[in-house]
Request: fold
Amino acid sequence: MQIRVKVKPNSKAPKIIEEEDGSLTVHLKSPPVDGKANEELIKTLAEKYNVPKSDVTIKSGLSARQKLVEIDM
Reply:
């Protein structure tokens, strides 16, 4: 399953918002430095979809706010 994700780093509280078009907006506490926000995104999505972190892959947008994430279900 592939999902379009908009990431908002440095948020006060982590949360996931499901948009009407099927994409997600994910608020993360981590800063976008040294891949910390990407690590938190993978952990957050793995918990949401109840899969191991190894099943969540960022396909594109590693250094961008708009990402394409693949989740092996």
Notes: The chain has a mean pLDDT of 96. The chain has one domain: 2-71. The chain has one helix and five strands. Residues 16 and 26 are 5 Å apart (CA to CA).
